Amino acid sequence: MALVSVPAPLRPASVGTAHSSELDDSEAERIRHDFPALDQAVNGRPLVYLDSGATSQKPRSVLEAEQDFYETRNAAVHRGAHELAVRATDAYEEARATVAAFVGVDPAELVWTSNATEALNLVAYAFSNATVWAERGRGTAELRRFALGPGDEIVVTELEHHANLIPWQELAFRTGATLRYIPVDDDGRLDLAEAARIIGPNTRLVAFSHASNLLGTVSPVEELVGLARGAGAFTVLDACQSVPHMPVDFKALDVDFAAFSGHKMLAPTGIGALYGRRELLDALPPFLVGGSMITTVTMERAEYLPAPQRFEAGTQRISQAVAFAAAVDYLRETGMQRIAAREARLGERLAQGIAALDGVRLLGPAPGEEWYVHPRFGIAAFDVAGVHAHDVGQYLDSRGVAVRVGHHCAQPLHRRLGLTASTRASAYVYTTEADIDAFLAALAEVRGFFGVTSKAGS
């Protein structure tokens, strides 16, 4: 049977490869036309989509990549010898290589998951399974490095998304380990002095977000990884809000594990990825078991493949992986340095405009302020005095502006900031200056619309 080559990934139609020039508003306007969902009206007004922090819109090249897979290569991967199965397997593994290269790792170190939440749970349950295996004398001596018990500590931060908090709460419960957290100050800034005190000889794992989904800040990865390394602890990075918006190299960051999600970076829903150092992934026990991740099965026990297949039981997210690679191609063609620089400018514009409004409290760094030597990226959350976040969101929606409202899966951080909910505007590669202007104009009307005119709480 002749091997059939896989078509080259689809490229964005309107974005060139010269990355030296600034990604300006005129190019953002051109990019916007690559996204069909943005070409519509909402409540009688042109859509202003400022909810990319929750989920991004998809360019035609990504939509076409998934459709093309189903039309020309649809088959199960790693399971057949017929031509379509070969095409499907090639496309699936080439997608892995594309996404892995985007974050600076080897393909064997990238595991496909349904989303970042599953990726983080995968690590937590693998540690839990390692604890059981070690107790029952199963596995290698290397596996025992992951076993946890009373006296061991897992450290997180107070600004984590629930997806990078609850799995560690449950892991501590299952193993008897203690969960500790690095606090933030009144503004939401991590207390690094407390981090140095908390991370110590009993720390076995440190899990933290690369970028805050609420505050728009980039965490001091080098300092936190250094503290973890000094304690001999594993590190887990939630990179959901960083990989879509800035150049990220997990090897350079020196983390052990990292999770990110496709739907926040132009790819479809239902696809995410876990990075893990190869020697760690190969030593960990699997999370899900079944077909496609085994070498030998008897009626008494099974032997498992090395990573990444060890963690990819059953029928996989093949078309989504292919489309994920197309999304990565789109971002790479646009230029991640250019995207990061533009989002920093848009984030500053959002922060300035929000902070200038009476009765509106900007969360996170003040305009022009940098925490941990990084500028705010394109996220700005805020509280409108006297108006619930849901009402703020509904009013903005009536003006055609889509934002996120609620606790953003970060209840502990909201509680620390004295809030139960907030409103969040988040920009991306297709966001224009006109989008920001329309949002700020609508936000300026909110308190007047609801009859709240005092400056209390500003």
UniProtKB/TrEMBL annotation:
This entry's Gene Ontology molecular function terms read: cysteine desulfurase activity; pyridoxal phosphate binding
InterPro entries registered for this protein in UniProt: Aminotrans_V_dom, Aminotrans_V_PyrdxlP_BS, Cys_dSase_SufS, PyrdxlP-dep_Trfase, PyrdxlP-dep_Trfase_major, PyrdxlP-dep_Trfase_small
- Enzyme Commission number(s) from the entry: 2.8.1.7
Lineage, top-rank taxon, reads Bacteria
Q: Name a single GO biological process.
A: cysteine metabolic process
Enzyme class name: transferase
* Job description of the protein: Catalyzes the removal of elemental sulfur and selenium atoms from L-cysteine, L-cystine, L-selenocysteine, and L-selenocystine to produce L-alanine.
* Protein name (database record): Cysteine desulfurase
- Which organism does this record belong to? Sinomonas humi
